[in-house]
Amino acid sequence: MSKNQENSTLVEIPFNQLHLLEELKVRDKYTDVDKLAETIRAEGGLLQPLLVTNGGSKDKPYSVVDGGRRYMALKALRWGDKPVPCLVKDYESATARMVSEVVAGVAREDFNPVDLCQRVHDLCTGDFPVVPGEQAPPTLKDTGDKEGDRGMYEKEMGAWREKRAISKEELAKQMGCSVGHILNVVRTHERISNEIRRRLRQSKVENLKVPMRVLFQWTTGEAAKLDDEKRMKLVDAWIAEQETKEVEQRTRAKRNSKTKNGEPVGWVSGRKAEDVALAVKILREKSKEANKDEALRIEGRIDVCRFLLGKVQNIPGVSAGELKALKDAIKEKAKAEAAEE
Fold this sequence. Notes:
This protein is of the alpha/beta class. It is 55% helix and 9% strand. 25% of the residues are buried.
């Protein structure tokens, strides 16, 4: 049992009585919700309970602390008033509740590191959103201050945040890391500008996550001295590299998954794969000579695979004479390799 599950009670709660606190989310957005929803549908419900606490609204008295993606999947399935297994836990303070959510995100290793930096910073400064049931912060009216005369208000707000804040030593203990790591995370948040966050969100790479080590490379050590413009250049270069990798991965995936009559290119391996490569090279050279482009398309590679495996007797756009030349070239290649051995 994890620390989050200690001193908790397992019960079944109707889904429509649960509420996900948007302000306590560790991640910018949840991924693969549709896939998880299908799994939940197939299994007839959740196998792993949600971690919830009291303190929601009258209609939705339970707030989800851990299990946001599962909650979103159930919401997509329109779970209504069907029961959901939940571990109900009471927290002594809003800070303890916030720490629980952050620790759960760290354990899952599926959070957004940029967002995690903000959460850690907010915990260390006590500057995080008010949660249901928590005493509200002081206002100008409460302190008797007027606009332009905010001395008492600022003083009481500082005391309120200090009361909510958790020490870096205690947070490090809860998260299972060093105090130095927490310090670096807090500094990283302070040095990552809103413009950098905007660039990361607008990247062409879906659900782009910057590893914590990369964030540290942008903000700690010698990089701590960089101004916003120079730091932005580092960020833009990294984003461009990730977008290039994304295009390459999609291209490879398309080639490996492209099918014709239900048979993927990926079924060819070993000797046949070498033969396909040779055949495609020959076809490309001939297509350039004859000004034909059929063999340059991915379908051409699939047709070559099927032809060399004996599944078809011809390749679209390739004459019988060219097919015979392909077979002869492959045979000669095999003979030459055998002679070398």
